[in-house]
Fold these 2 entries.
Entry 1:
Amino acid sequence: MHPPHPRRTPRRTALLSVLLLAAVSACSSDDGVAPAAQAKPRSGGSLTYAAQQEPDCWDPHTSAQDVTAFVQRPVFDSLVYQTPDGELEPWLAKSWKTSEGGRTYTFELRDDVTFHDGKHLDAAAVKANFDHITAKATQSQYAAGLLGPYKGTAVKGKYEVEVRFSRPYAPFLQAASTTYLGMASPASLKAGADKLCAGTDSVGSGPFKAGAYTRGQKRGYTRNAAYAWAPKDAGHSGPARLDGFTIRFLTEDATRVGALTSGQVDAAAALPANQIAAVRRNTRLDVVTKDVPGAVDTFYLNTKSPLFTDERVRKAFQRSVDLDALVKSVFQGTGTRAWSTLSPATPHSYDSALERSWPSDRALAGRLLDQAGWKGRDAEGYRTKNGKRLTVVAPVYGKASVFSQAVQGDLKKAGIHLKLAASTDATAVSAQLDEGRYDVVETSWARGDGDILSSFFLSTESSEGGGHNFAKVTDPQVDAWLKKAQAATSPDKRAAYYAQVQKWTIDHAAVVPAYVQKASVGVNKKVHGLRLSLSAWPEFYAAWVEAGR
Amino acid sequence: MTPPHISAAVRAVTARAGAAVLVVWGAATCAFLALHLIPGDPVSAIVGSNALVGAEQREEIRHHYGLDRSPLVQYGAYLKQLATGELGDSYQLQQPVSSLLADQIGPTAQLALWSSLVAVVLAATVTVLTSGRSRWPRRVSSAVELLVVSTPSFWLGIMLLTVFSFRLGWLPVSDSGDARSLVLPVITLALPIAAVLTQVMREGLLGALEQPFSLTARSRGLAEHTVRSRHALRHAALPALTLTGWFTGTLLGGAVVVENVFARSGIGRITLQAVSDRDLPVVQGVVALSAVVFVLVGAVVELLYVVVDPRLRKGTGVAAA
Amino acid sequence: MSVEQAVRAGAPIAAVRRARRGRVRPGVLAAAVLLGLILLAALAPSLLAHGSPTDTDPVHALQAPGGAHWFGTDQLGRDVFARVVHGTRYSLAIGAAATGAGVGLAVVWGLAAALSGRFGDAVLMRAADALLALPGLLLALMVVLIAGKGVLGTTIAVAVGTAPGFARVVRAQALVVRRSGYVESAVALGVPRPLIVLRHVLPNTLGPLLVLATVTLGASISTGAALSYLGLGAQPPTPEWGAMLTEGQGFLEQAWWIALFPGLLLVSTVLAVTVVGRHAQARAEGRAAS
Amino acid sequence: MTTASTTKPLFEVAGLNVRFGTGPGEVHAVRDAAFSLDAGRCLAIVGESGSGKSALARSLLGLAGPTARVTADRLRVAGHEAREFGPREWRAVRGRRVGLVAQDALVALDPLRPVGKEIAEPLLTHRVVPRREAGARVLALLERVGVPEPAERARAYVHQLSGGLRQRALIASAIAAEPGVLIADEPTTALDASVQSRVLALLGELKESGTGLLLISHDLAVVEALADEVAVMKDGRIVESGPVGRVLEAPEHPYTKSLLAAIPGSGPRRERTVVAPGDGSAPLLDVSGVTKVFKGARGSRRTAVDEVSFALRPGEALGLVGESGSGKSTLARMVLGLAAPDGGTVELGGAPWSGLRERDRRERRHTVQLVPQDPLSAFDPRWSVARIVGEALATAGVARAERRERTVRLLKQVGLSVEHLERRPLALSGGQRQRVAVARALAPSPRLLVCDEPVSALDVSVQAQVLDLLRSLQEELGLATLFISHDLAVVREVCARVLVMKDGRIVESGPVERVFAEPAHPYTRALLEAVPRRARAAVERL
């Protein structure tokens, strides 16, 4: 047992030093601070992380919020681990094999895993978890969806479990690596929806146990000393290095960034674009960024809307916007321009050949619009066709983003009126989407697997059924590619199919990919080993803190 | 037959209690009507816009929360809930609203009480200091008061944070364990209230200084500042006490913004979240709670009013010559 | 007429002395000029600012105040000066319209309560209490969700927020006027009741409330800004001051001018309106030392 | 500070000037005043409102007010030259050397603090007694000024005491720190006649025991009862001064003479053409068995008017006399139809008047009109005289074209002129305002005029003019008048018959001369007894 030193002292000394530093840096230039010697990783100490959003419900099996998956990752392990660069490797499941053409998955579990309540992880526990997720009473808003055509789980042996699906379901392994399908102690599953949602009964097998939680304020985590089943590439093995850590919920940007720069927190999530440069300039801080996998921020053009049935108008819209300039100025140089619906960070699916293949060309756009009959110009300079102005209706949930407003301004120069119809009434917006009363939808969707393309372009994934096919692509060729990709076992074959889908959507101007979503976390230099997972959320397991600073 | 003044006192108390119940009922009904008038289907508010939930599961949720019943039936159930204090479950947080409010009322009450205290003490001191003979302190103070009243509170909060917490680092942002994190939010909430209170109290105090009893006090050899603090200040309190309705409303309303800016937990923050998520049970719970608080504070202040002004005391009819 | 006589005649010393000091002071003049400018900006913004408030120019985003752009440019390269000037109309609309509607509703409400019998008075006042019991901002949030976001929603929300408090003040003042000597004399003369209300009760009730209305105007603009901060006020790209404050607040470190100038305009408008309002009331009170 | 030696004068003032404000708005309130006051003596300063007597009194305490500028050749207060006094010296004098007794204790004592504490304040401020003994000393002081059960009264608040008790408590607070001299500014004006005499007796006792008394008053009767010397002030200047006997009996200055002549009841009694009550015509006003009960705090009930009956013939002038709280004003409001009686009926011009709906009563409202006590509150502050009288004419059905001409005629009838037309009530003097009130009352050419204390708010000289106006209008227009007042002398001037009211009941009624000469009811006798000697002397001389 290492010497019992009160947990508060490092924090207080840190605070004092920070005060001195803050006072010094406040008035003098930043060069006064000598770079710390390259310290060795050590165990002990704690850190405070400022998150932008607080989950409404803490139960990963029911909540649809991605922040829930992030805050519960340290507590719940999963059968499979997905490395930051997308590879899947064993975790609680030592090995797995698929059979019956990808309809059945058989997992070989580790035998040394215990939950925080001392219970043992075995096949029955895995079955209990999956059955709980798909049970009607649980009213799961997302996890059940991830299990797709789930038929049931069979216990084959004490540590052997078989998961069956009604049709081949390739994305299951990637889904099984998320916190949504994380393994909770079967006893805790009976605690009832309100306790699980309140985050008071989160009992998993992860490297950290759930500590004290004050809603609206902060959530504490303490080290699980018995932890010995970390995945190979987790960057550390055995119990976590930190004694514990605290996540504080600071929703107001200015407050969160200020807390980081004044040293009151050791790391802060979601730095606004204009603050990144300032945080980088601060010698005591660093900025860790990572592209978010899945579907980038893209304009999906409704190929069935009266305006956009004409492919020439769609192409003109696609080529009118000078996206390079907009992305550079709105995100002040920290943004990455996107050329395909998929983010480069999506493993085995991104088609880099599309880059620079459709640069903005206002002259071409002009000619196409003339051919399509949009020759006239009204008082404000918008193009008209027999009196009617060229208006593109874009429904927006909540507030129109700064980027959307920039695109609106740029399109005006090309004579196209982008009408941003903002509303906080979720129902009205979803009704508008379901009934197709729109020309374009700008959205993005984080997902660690190329299969996200299916939910955007598979003809059956209509908006009413909860799918995302806003472009209303109903092309048998595209459907075929997507189904084959779902069934394909080898990653390369899947990548080839996905590449064809991406090229089709660009060539037919069904989409205008804009920028890659980026997660940027500000970190105090005394914190090391805090790396961003594939879905660009920080992993605390391998993190450690320099003593004394 | 009970002596007249006892039955009258009882009648007065029951009348006030009746009025209080009426106010709480009125506020709750307003909230119920308002939330039901809001266009859109509450189920999609519960589910949120990015969930993968099929149609029949939506029906499941609608039935679970009883949203499929006629509005009148829902209203009846809602009033019964209100009466029994069992406020149902929050849609978003899937927790009983009563327990949710119970553990969130602590920080808000702490913030509200400290802010009220600071506002009243600040207003009284500034009033006494600026109602002296020379005119310029009064001019400067009223300019500052106007400035504070017309600055939106979120701006004030962020300014204070940027200077005292981030630049100078004297005060932490929001660490409920650390009392110092209470200083900035209290100042942000208390300043606008103190500004208005000072204007009203100073008007009252200057008026009192011109009353004949101030002249008598001076004729007894009292120094001007003693006349102000011992006699006039109490008279200045009377008009301030009439502002209770506005005072409590501003306190609760202000808490919403301050808790958001300073990332403090509390009722304000939940209210804002609940209204934008159309979380009916939580909003109705908060409304009932604030109505009760409003009525309680009103009763307390009415008592205070009688303590300060003996002329209103019941048992003080005119004694015979 | 000597101070002594005025005192003897019952006029409170304060009112008489204040009337005597009624000549226009420099502060009031400055406030009046500023108010004039603001009204001009609201009615004909293009006179003062030639650029368009909504044209984006991302390449020249976040430029400091200088020759080309007096108030600098915002994160989308829009001219802050043009936006502030064109924004006057929206902020004033929220402030003036909300106060007007709020005060109008309050006068009807307060007068009805003061002039009707005990039962009517009790019901109306309890209704006012019920609305007052809802925290101002919560009421505003709900109204905005019903009436919809943007300038209209905010205006109604702020009006509904101010009306109950104001109604109580109107009622109190109306009760004082109703019991006054001149109303009783009018009854003795045989003047019909509606005429008494129109000629005596209404004007004497509204007079003293003039200053309170100006202070409410200040508070209304400020509440409108708070609503924008919570994302419920005017929607982008509308150049309303509150919305600009919210957007600009994110850039405080590096582009202070985006938030500073709308904030400055907001505060100085409120100051100007309150100073002019106070002066008007002091003058009215001096003349009619009721 | 040596205690005041008996020989040196308490006040020695010469060339005293007090000015308020600056530039065109400057008011020169006191001009070159000179006087002196010795211990055990009383100097009275007499003058009408606006004469500057209050400003003079306050300047002796350095309390003339922030905008006042006080200059003097000599200003010796309690043996020290006050011209060089700084705030500290003034504070040492106030309360300890010079005490102040204001007009109305209800507002001159802090209503939010117990009376005992108010009296103790000067004791503690000047450390006359250690804090422990202050309580006992307060009780002794209350006893000294004749307040029964001092312990209970000390705990009470000022609004809980009756008029007389409050004024005695105020005097107790003024003499607490044993000042050598008392300045009494209209000490008994706010009191009823009966209570007034007892408080004056108390002030007399204090004078006998050696305290100097500077009495400020507009009421010559009060001056006569207390003063040794008297100084008459007009427009800031002392126009006449000397021993009280000489000045009141043989006044030299014309202003003093006019003041004395204006005292009601003092002049020769003018004959009134009394309309024979029994001339058989139906009574214009018939009040029978009228009762009015007010529900007080905590369910207590107070009977303000108890079974009152009387009749009023057309053209008759009936007086209604009683002290404050006797119910006379409530009765007047019932006659005017502004308050509904709980019992009994009021008939006007032979038809029922009380118990009607306001709409039915409205057409006959022109028959009875009111002349109020305080005209300032009876006029809409924002209206001009023309509009005030115009409204009355309009309601009486006078066409718009004639209205202006009729208004001017009415103004002339009450002694005003065209130049008052556009003025606002505040810009008129007390007397002028009362004349406008009469003009408004005459507009609907009523048959009955109800005057509720029409002159009690006015100065003596102005009172006389308004009473003359009312009397001449009665005779000219054959108006019936119900004249309500607490002042018997005033009633005697104007009325032929009088009713005396006490606690809501009429205790005596009859022709004025008979009631004045041989009052039957003991209460009427007490009222008459309290009328200051000057008025009574005139009656005896009859």
Entry 2:
Amino acid sequence: MRNLLTGIAVLVFMAGTSPGGTITRMDEPTTLVFLTWKPNQSKGWNHLLREFDEKHPHIRIKTQVAPHSSTQYHAIVTQRLKNRDASLDLFLMDVVWPPEFGNAGWALDLTSRFPVREQRKFLSGPITANIWQGRIYGIPCYLGAGLFYYRKDLLNKYGFEVPRTWNEMLTAGKAVLQGEDDPGLYIYSGQFKQYEGLVCDMLEFIWSNGGAVIDRKSDQVVLDKQASIGAVAFVRDKIIGKAAPRGAVNYEEPESLGLFIQGKAVFHRNWPYAWALSNDPERSKIAGRVGVAVLPAFQGHHSASTLGGWQFGINRYSRHPEEAWKFIEFMSSRQSQKILALESGLAPTRASVYEDPEIQKMMPYLNAFFPAFKKARPRPLSPVYPMVSQELQRFFSRAIAEKDSDLREMAKTTSVNIERLLQLVSKIQR
Amino acid sequence: MTRKDNIFFLILLAPALFILLLFIAVPIGQSLFLSFHRLILSLPQLGSPFLGLENYKDLLHDPVARHSLWITLIFVCAATFFELLIGVLLALLMHHHFPGRGMLRACVLIPWAVPTVVSAQMWRFLLNDAYGMVNYVIFGAHTTEYIPWLALPSTALLSLIVADVWKTSSFAALLILAGLQVIPEELYLASRVDGAGVWQRFWRITWPLIRPALMVALLFRTIDAFRVFDLAFVMTQGGPADATNVLQFYGYKKMFVEGWMGYGSAISVCIFVMVLILAVFYVRMVGHRLLEASG
Amino acid sequence: MASLELKKISKCFGNERILSRVDLQVKEGEFCVLLGPSGCGKSTLLQIVAGLIRQDEGSVLLNGRPVDRATPRERDIAMVFQGYALYPHMTVAQNLGFGLRMRGMARDGIKKQVTEIATRLGIETLLKRKPRELSGGQRQRVAMGRALVRSPMLFLLDEPLSNLDAQLRINVRLELKRLHQQMKGTILYVTHDQVEAMTLGDKVVVMKRGEVRQIGRPSIIYDRPADTFVATFIGSPAMNLFRGELTQKEGRLTFHTADFLLNSGDVPSELAGAPVEVGIRPEDITIARDAGNAGDLLMARVDIISNVGAEKFLHTMVGNTGITVRSEKGASFQTGDTIPLIIDPASLHIFHKGRRV
Amino acid sequence: MMKGFLQESLFLSGVLLAAGFSLAPFLWFILCALKTPAEVTAIPLQLLPSFSLESFRLAIERYGILHYLGNSIIVAGITTFVSISLGTFAGYALARLPRRPAKIILMAVLACAMFPHIAIAGPIWDFLRFMGWLNAYQGLILPYVALTLPLTIWILTLFFREMPEELEAAALVDGCTRIGSLQHVILPLSAPGLFTAAILSFIYAWNEFFLALLIMTDPAKQTMPVGIALFQGEYTIPWGEIAAASFITTAPLVLLVLLFQRRIVTGLSAGAIKG
């Protein structure tokens, strides 16, 4: 029993002597805490961190790691930011967060340090995504956009061009399926689980039919207009359970890519990362037989890609904003973006990096991605986007999971709900 | 029992109660406080006005919450029922003397030793519509028959229940086994001499004696099942069409995804109150023996 | 060894009064038996003496010093429990040595004393066994040994024989008596068995509903019961007790029941006309050889005969009143016989309002 | 004779079913660790792996699972120890206190187990930050102790109540203090209860994810479930490595339980409590 008591005593003691706040002296290097996730390929990141260390001996970067899952990272980072936790200096933001982080007063306003002149050097999509009410809150680190992957070999075999419209995709797909005689083969594979990815995929359908959730000019919710509903109906009636397996209703990126790289789908919608994986002979049965293009559109409309990717941000309550700025300035420099591209396979957000001869040589496929990147559209920009997204996910999932759902009615309800959310925001703007 | 003893017992209780107070009771209070306010993290300009019971009123009229409640109740009933049933069976098997009993005990423990984050991923993998083992076991090579378990609203909830039963049956089994272990062997011998059959032995001796353990298992399983969250998080994200949007996952999304702290807290408080009512009911109905047992 | 004194001990559980103002003195080396039906509070009293329960009022004195604030450990008392309370996870040797170990005795010393006591009780071959491998009698011995090994101030025994079968009980009883005679320990012994009480006790305390009814040597308790409860509780078969009235007749007090009259001998005359109870033990009734001198005889009809071997008890009826009578084992009465009974007024116990007169 | 055979085979099939139910899904999943990435998600599914140990190597070297494992052992180990110690004291007190206050305290303790963890995670985090215990072992251990205590207290109270009172009285008379009787008599006899409570607390702390995610962001202190969650990249799930990590983290636990259980079961069968 005595051991037991000593055990507790030791524990209490341990607790008492834990390091609280640390005092920095002038001659000591400043430590910046950077909450990051574990990158898919860490080589480029490590390279840059090392280089920054060498160049700035007075700044030490201490990395903390969260999962790459957007929701999990969001939970951790907001927990710290909402409590004004000054022990965090730098963080990453998913592309949909800057309005939220900016309005909540969590992310440092970078407008003075990152003027429009600098912003112009970046692609327009990611810059727009970082702006809320005329102030910019993040620097784009890398970007993603919905891309259209297809089986080069099969299209060639049956004499089809890369489809420009969704109907062309169905026609070509049907022909391939007929010819191949593989009951496991599907025309299309995408992400339709009730999660953020569903919003991305569905928005691409809606946008490429001239629809939208919120009209860009009038700021009205137009989800219940025919252009939007028509696109949703198309997915429900022509894609789910037909062109794509019924199981796609629970597919995230890994499952949908799995189908494609096992050679069981002719067409596939995914982010840029899928390129490397589907061409990796260790993982993919279709390595070298994959083509990539912009997503199809509906007849008479333009292709649309949803913007993805991550941004650097600075904690507004950081005690070392100057040093933190130095870090993200370094990380988003042209040279750094090139290293991240070459060594970690991440798509640059600076337009000029794409023209770099070394990039051109080592990553020629970026040329195929570039049109989609250039036009990639951010999801609705709003501090309440997470709530809007939940409404959209609910609507889309119900729309596609239930065969004869009343789309118009559901779209109406969802629109009303979203409008109510947006009113909350307009209340504070007044 | 002397008075000195009673004071001594209170001293023994103190550290445990102190920790519970600090890490649970106080946070519960803070949650309760939040639930009476409107606090939206991304809109600090709205402040956090006191709303009274408005969050709860909204919750009553929230069709999503009502649907979630319904789903949660189905989940709780089905999951706890099967967990306890399988738990009792497993415990009886494990209590039997036979060679390899230790191995069986270890096997039964495995599901519980696998972290939920992994087991949920595992079931997402096993239930895949194209390469999942579950489909293979049921349909073999007839790939066209394969069921997209997690993609259909009806089977998605079933899948969650199966995953939960698989993982936590051993919890009940372990508790009940511990209850079985204190039953003196003599009781069984005596009843055998008295000519009781297997069935009678179970109902007359085993059942009354494992009831307290079963009660604890029932209580804690119900409490946990009501708060299920990680299975939905990993396997379905509440979908498809909200079919697995259990109440706690809904609350999680409100708080940590949408930043709607007041409303999310109200959901948590409601879960708490429902579990509390259920627990009191259980204790009244089945558990009085446990609590009244002389000390 | 120590003397024990209890002063006005009272105890309630909730609203129920378990003990009320119990006084008792046990001299050093005395074997004191608490006797009473179950629920009379005797076990509670024992636990209060042990310090397991705290009394509400009153005081416990060991060797004249109050120990009310002392824990069981500090009181240095040994106790044998009804269920023996052997530690199931320890061997016999460990069970025996546990108390010594707790008092910080060295390993060698423990071993020596355990072996000694085990030899004395004849359980030296069982030292390595666990309690569940022992028979009832063996367990009882271990329990006794555990108390004896420590040579404490006081032994408390809580119905230590009640879990043994009849034959064994008699043997152990004798052994206990012998042990006490050898060791001269102060013993407080709880039982509901009057035979145990009578055979073992130097002093018997009869209790009922939390009150002490009588304290005294066994012979006193038997021969001069203080009240009707003690009178009927002690003795087997129980004392005959008749309800009736004393009337003065011809300058003598006579006891009347509905069925008969008895000469009541020397009784204070102020009781004349008062309702009383009169008791007589079966062995104090003589069966007359013939029915002569009918005035002093009671004519009783034999109803049931119980033969206990060494003697016979006749359950007879006089009118509607039952009287139990002892007869020699050779007597040859038949059910339905009418026999004349002689009752000696000197052996009558007369009670007024329950108390002995 | 026939009946005996029938019973035997019924029992045997029960055992096999139980083992299969518990083991088969996990084994199939663990097979992934021996497959190449392409084999893992092969359509139609591939039964036999190519027995590549690459996943194990990656899980250990690249993802550093052993490091997380070490943290989990520290956190879960100390949590169990503290939870069982405090739970023992509290359970013992509750088993011996008068019924009515004990019942009230037990219900209050149970209520503590009922509140959704999600909702108290935030306030707990605040408090830990106030104490400076974020990214410190005690910052995870203390909340875990609080979360496991209700179950521990309930199990142990239950066991201590089943203990015959005479045994404890005997120990007290034999010269034990209350604590001494707890240590020498009651605890050894409650081994199954202690063991069960210990396994349940240990595994709870071993598996807990959400709090660990919020509280431990310093890679040096992160526990195994968070470590495994970190395996996932953006849009990728390395099934093989996750399976390998699951095996590496589950196997020692099961082995440990197997060993402990033997000792406890044999220790116990040598002395039943009642009789």
